[in-house]
Write a structure and sequence with these properties.
The structure is a single chain. By secondary structure, the protein is of the alpha/beta class. The chain has 2 domains: about 120 residues, Enolase-like, domain 1 (2-Layer Sandwich), CATH 3.30.390; about 240 residues, Enolase-like C-terminal domain (TIM Barrel, Alpha-Beta Barrel). The strands form 3 sheets. Strands 6, 7, 8, 9, 10, 11, 12, 13 and 14 form a 9-stranded mixed sheet that branches. A 3-stranded antiparallel sheet has the order 1-4-5, with helices on both faces. The protein has a two-stranded antiparallel sheet with strand order 2-3. Helix 2 crosses helix 4. The longest helix is centred in the first third of the chain and has 22 residues. It is globular, with a radius of gyration of 20 Å.
């Protein structure tokens, strides 16, 4: 392929007329997304998303501009672009949101390449398309709320929709979080399993490792668990290792890691049973793929982190199929922007996604006409964790 044009697209959906999206981290007033649109010399268009843009979308256009001069001038393979850009920008783009912008460019190139070839993105990415599973499980991600009743109400909605695994977030402190677990214990439908996200244990004011362990032990005792997510701050590898050694629940993380080496260090320390790389954060599909492969060699599970618009959702689902991942995250909170950016909407039946439903060329994501007016970007809002 050959790149003709790259442009950033910033979008927002204002939630303030909806029921409040309140949680331990604060109130979400807008869903923000920074997309990267790549157009090839043949006229094919692909989309990628910057995962970090839910909190810092305004930083993306400048980084896209800074990366333009590093883009290949001639023809290249889509799989090469992430490694190429990282190799050329080691002095300033080794991680963080810069890595997310590289990831978005990489994904957009692969999406455009698949569209040019007339094949679904999963087939374009898979080393052996015949080994791709027929379906994978989707788990419902949301679980926001400042009261037990709010969280339990959301869980009941997901059970009614057919999800077998639901992910909830911690409350304001260990005591109220354990109270939530007690409240849910009598209200879960039979067969539902729960993932508990401590949100870097918890958000911008991490609890002690001892508290993270006590909540993890209470979780194991009270609910049919699936995993215990991010019980410590992202950089606290020793804390992760201590929690993993002390609790019976599988420990997972770390969604905000943006270079493969961070996952290697975490796994070397025995810090997790499950890694959660984010395709839209990690500097390209090749990085994402390497983390999944490394985890498998170690006997560690890999489940993708997904949070954003329909672009991130669909591209992540295709990547999960291509790599044979068993489970994928689906945010079920109200977000019309996520729906509008799916030209071929994701279908979930009885908590599963069928490969046969991903038949369109490319990812199935699209920027519909008028999207930049309907979802005009609102500077200075977005998700803010305090």
């Amino acid at each position: 392929m050959r790149i003709d044009r790259v442009r950033p697209v910033l979008l927002s959906y204002d939630t303030r007329d909806d029921p409040p999206l309140e949680w331990v981290g604060g109130t979400i007033t807008t869903w923000d997304a920074a997309l990267v649109e790549v157009t090839t010399a043949s006229g094919a268009t692909g989309l990628g998303e910057v995962a970090q843009s839910t909190m810092a979308a305004e930083a993306v256009p400048g980084i896209v501009d800074a990366l333009r001069r590093y883009l290949p001038a001639g023809e290249f393979q889509g799989r090469e672009i992430g490694d190429h850009l990282r190799a050329q920008t080691r002095f300033w783009a080794r991680g963080g949101i810069s890595s997310g912008v590289i990831a978005a460019i990489s994904t957009a190139c692969l999406d455009a390449e698949a569209r040019e070839a007339g094949v679904p993105l999963w087939r374009h990415l898979a080393a052996d398309p015949s080994a791709v599973p027929d379906s994978i499980e989707a788990y419902a991600s949301g679980g926001l709320g400042t009261t037990n009743e709010q969280v339990a109400g959301w869980v009941a909605e997901q059970e009614a929709a057919g999800f077998g695994t639901v992910k909830i977030r911690a409350m304001r402190d260990p005591r109220t979080t354990i109270e939530l677990l007690d409240y849910l214990r009598e209200r879960l439908s039979g067969g539902t399993r729960v993932a508990l996200d401590l949100v870097q244990g918890c958000a911008s004011h991490p609890w002690s490792v001892a508290d993270a362990i006590s909540v993890g032990q209470a979780f194991a005792e009270r609910l049919p668990y699936r995993w215990y997510e991010e019980p410590c701050a992202a950089e606290d590898i020793k804390g992760y290792a201590a929690v993993t050694a002390a609790v019976d629940v599988p420990v997972s993380g770390v969604e905000s890691y943006s270079v493969p080496e961070d996952f290697e260090h975490l796994m070397d320390a025995g810090g997790v049973n499950i890694v959660q790389p984010d395709l839209s954060m990690m500097g390209g599909f090749s990085c994402f793929e390497r983390v999944v492969a490394s985890a498998r060699r170690r006997g560690v599970d890999a489940i993708p982190h997904v949070w954003g618009s329909g672009v991130q959702l669909l591209t992540s689902v295709h990547a999960a199929f291509a790599l044979g991942m068993p489970l994928v995250e689906v945010c079920t909170l109200l977000n019309p922007m996520r729906d509008a950016t799916q030209e071929h909407p994701l279908t979930i039946a009885r908590g599963r996604i069928a490969r046969a439903d991903l038949a369109a060329a490319g990812s199935g994501a699209a920027l519909p006409a008028g999207a930049e007016e309907r979802f005009a970007y609102q500077y200075g809002k977005g998700m803010l964790i305090k």
